[in-house]
Write a structure and sequence with these properties.
Length: 437
């Protein structure tokens, strides 16, 4: 009997009854072929590979991360809660030491869901990785966590949630936002005033091949992880970089994904996107499973694979090398960059427009953060969504709040003019509370 060198937990939640619409790429049968492949290859018979059943995440698990307007049940369905809960089950299996690694093969995905949620963005309602990470911290104690997002789309939701948190390093490699939804994810998006450098974006040009992805992992991601020294590495394992994916333009293969996983050695992988449901997903998932378990994946091969399909033009090779150098240099200078950007400032504000493509909603935000050397800094967001008839104030007291930031946050929440807003929210991380008035 085959024995896995690393014990691996697998959680499947294919959500066979959930779709955005019958012809939408995010539809019922998306994981059907993957599940067949895993069964056919006898993966679950391998000694050391264990299947776990998902459970729904609780409302509180979601509220720890999101301000859903008006509330969680209006914005997250049963499938969303079970997808998030599948990630929680994967986390428990690893943190309790039952397995060395885990892979949550669940849908719907989550990495476009931001702190405030008025509706679905990029197929996502709630952010399943973030819900998992905050659950881990609540249940197992504070951790330094790195999220490496290898989905083809920029994970703008995860970036937003961890924008101010220097204990959570967010690294995203994705197709350049000038050519793909959601249009963001460039080097200047580098983290908030108290977490400068802990958001790193590497926008890769369309037609990036196997070589480019693996170069970025070896020459940027691994060196940064070595500097950051996380307790846990989480991989947002989107599979839409595959050369057959219908909604993107990259040239990555199943074996490439397996090699990437082998290099990254994530503790927990969570499926994100991937819409070539027959031509890619069964092979990519198989490759990731084998690599996580420490087994040979060299035989995994798509029926239509050829080296020409994953080759990249020479100019892309040079461009990625330059981009990795610049990004790594910025990471090394993050403390100096922060000192310059906050010099003499008490607070820093930014205005943002957040578009909800699935439902056609527009949100306008003004976000303000106190510059603070002692914690992640009090943050508040004044947010309007005219399409939903909402104008809310959301106050965020960070996990490591210093006494001053806590006091200011409580004052802001108490004193906010209830006639101006349709809702005033206080997310109090240290107390694990969400208050709404
Ligand atoms: Zn994607
Ligand atoms: Zn503070």
């Amino acid at each position: 009997m085959l024995k896995a060198p690393h014990r691996l937990g697998l959680v499947f939640f294919p959500a066979y009854d959930w779709a955005i619409s019958p012809t939408h790429p995010e539809r019922e049968e998306r994981l059907l072929y993957t599940q067949d492949q895993v069964w056919e290859e006898g993966i679950l018979d391998i000694d050391g590979i264990t299947e776990y059943r998902p459970r729904p995440a609780g409302i509180k698990d979601v509220e720890r991360v999101h301000i859903c307007v008006p509330d969680v049940r209006s914005r997250a369905g049963d499938s969303d809660l079970i997808a998030a809960g599948g990630a929680l089950v994967a986390a428990d299996a690893v943190l309790r030491g039952e397995v060395d690694r885990a892979f949550a093969i669940v849908r719907p995905p989550g990495h476009h869901a931001q702190r405030i949620v008025y509706g679905n963005r990029g197929f996502c309602n709630i952010n399943i990785e973030a819900i998992m990470i905050e659950y881990i911290r609540r249940r197992y104690g504070p951790k330094r966590i790195a999220i490496v997002d290898t989905d083809c789309h920029h994970g703008d939701g995860t970036q937003d949630i961890y924008w101010h948190d220097k204990d959570t390093l967010y690294i995203s490699i994705h197709q350049d936002g000038r050519t793909l939804y959601p249009g963001s994810g460039f080097l200047p998006e580098f983290g908030g005033p108290n977490a400068c450098g802990y958001t790193l974006n590497l926008p890769l040009p369309p037609e990036t091949g196997e070589e480019g992805f693996l170069y970025a992992v070896e020459n940027l991601i691994l060196p940064v992880l070595e500097d950051f020294r996380p307790d846990l590495i989480i991989n947002s394992a989107g599979q839409d970089n595959h050369y057959t994916d219908p909604i993107t333009n990259m040239r990555f293969s199943a074996r490439g994904y397996a090699r990437l996983t082998e290099l990254l050695q994530p503790h927990i992988a969570v499926l994100e996107g991937g819409y070539s449901i027959e031509g890619a997903l069964p092979y990519v998932n198989l490759g990731i499973i084998l690599a996580l378990a420490g087994l040979d994946y060299s035989w995994v091969r798509e029926p239509d694979y050829s080296p020409a399909k994953v080759a990249q033009p020479r100019e892309i090779t040079d461009y990625i090398a330059r981009l990795c150098r610049e990004t790594y240099a910025a990471w090394r200078q993050r403390h100096e960059i922060r000192a310059r950007s906050v010099a003499g400032r008490k607070e820093i504000s930014r205005q943002r427009r957040v578009y909800y493509d699935t439902e056609g909603l527009l949100e306008l935000q003004k976000e303000t953060t106190l510059v603070c050397d002692d914690c992640a800094g009090l943050t508040w967001i004044d947010s309007r969504c005219a399409d939903r008839g909402e104008h809310i104030l959301a106050v965020f007291i960070p996990r490591d709040a210093c006494p001053r930031c806590r006091q200011e946050g409580e004052k802001l929440f108490r004193r906010a003019d209830r006639r101006t807003y349709t809702g005033v929210y206080l997310q109090d991380r240290p107390e694990d509370l969400l208050l709404k008035e």
